[in-house]
Amino acid sequence: MLIYLIVFFVSYKLLCVSQENQNVRSQKALVVMALLLPAILAGLRDYSIGTDVQVYGNSWFYYARWNKATTYFRMATSSDIGIVYAFVNYFTSLFTGSPHWFYFVLNMLTVSLIYKAAKDNADLGDVPFAMLTYYFLFYNQTLNMLRQSLAIAFVACAFTFIRKQKMWPFMVYAMLAVLSHMTAVVVFVMYMIYKVVNGKFGNLAKIGILSGAAAVIVGFFPLMKILLQRGILPMRYMTYINNVSRGGGYVRLFLLCMPYLLLLLFFVKKDSYKKERNVLICYLIISTLISSLAFRMIYTVRIGYYFDVCLIFIIPFIAGNFRINVKVGGRAINKALLTTLMLGYWVFVYGIRQSGQTVPYLFMR
User: Fold this and answer.
1) CA atoms in the 13 A half-sphere facing the CB of 311
2) What is the largest CA-CA distance in the chain?
3) Which among 46, 49, 272, 309 has most CB atoms closer than 10 A?
């Protein structure tokens, strides 16, 4: 576990130093170094790190290596593997025969997109702290959920244009997300939520959205079966419906969603970024409702991840807009307290529960 913590905090420190540096070239060099660290860690890992590596990670890389482009992309399309993910796979395979390089490139792309999203929304909170948030809450997932982690990163970038209500740039990132993983279609719901909540009937809209979300949660399984029967969803999703695995609901509720929802509701200055705060509260409530589905089927939490990624904006926002500045020796420790909370989540989920099989870290053999 120590190797992860070293990479997380060294990357965070490099980003902090880059912000303080006045030289533009030095700033860029420090940022590149900071983002390279987690990407290198991803590339050097053993194939046993991350369950999806053996499921489709290595196999699709070798498909790309051994087949012509037309054959490969036809296979990717028919298998619903995600055309953007397939392209990254194929592009990397042109230069190397090792999947380790692919995992490096994929993670570098994913982390860079997250950094771009954090920087584009720097007015909401500190960028280095946003990246530290990402490392603790999502980095280990990127070693497991290869395709969806890329989709989640595109959704994080799309949030910039959800805020600005710029349709065309939003559509670019939204489509890249959907073409990475079909479940990212939920980003269009996120766009509409922002538009409706900050519209003419704000409070009424919030009640309607949350009521509608609750109704969808209740009718989720019948709705999925209808979409499958009509061919709207691929039949492989039937495996998820019939899978009896469950779990993670309590963890998400009490260690991920509820703490930050309560902080956002009651401990943040209410006049700070009112539009964004209202929307982020809605996103977190929806994520909390989705968590309840995990009590019946564990895979449903993957829909919640698209709302969860907004925590990279929410947690730095909480740190910077806390009603009470907690101080020790005259120095504010809001970030330190939130970091401790995130560290506890990371240790419990990835260390103790072994989620995604990413701990302990093993170097490639």
Assistant:
1) 30
2) 64
3) 309
Look at the chain and count its residues: 365
The dihedral of CA 305, 309, 315, 318: what is its sign?
A: negative
Q: Which of 157, 150, 159 is nearest to 181 (CA)?
A: 150
231 token code pair: 């061919």
Residues 183-241: tens digit of each pLDDT: 999 999 999 989 888 876 656 666 676 676 666 666 656 666 676 677 666 655 555 55
Report which of 115, 104, 134, 143 is spatially closest to residue 15, judged by C-alpha positions: 115
DSSP 272-316: SSHHHHHHHHHHHHHHHHHHHHTTT-GGGHHHHHHHHTTHHHHHH
DSSP character string of 111-168: HHHHHHHHHHTTTTS-HHHHHHHHIIIIIHHHTT-HHHHHHHHHHHHHHHHHHHT-HH
How far apart (Å, rounded) are the C-alpha atoms in residues 187 and 306? 7
Tell which phi-psi region holds residue 215, choosing left (phi > 0), alpha (psi between -120 and 50) or beta.
alpha
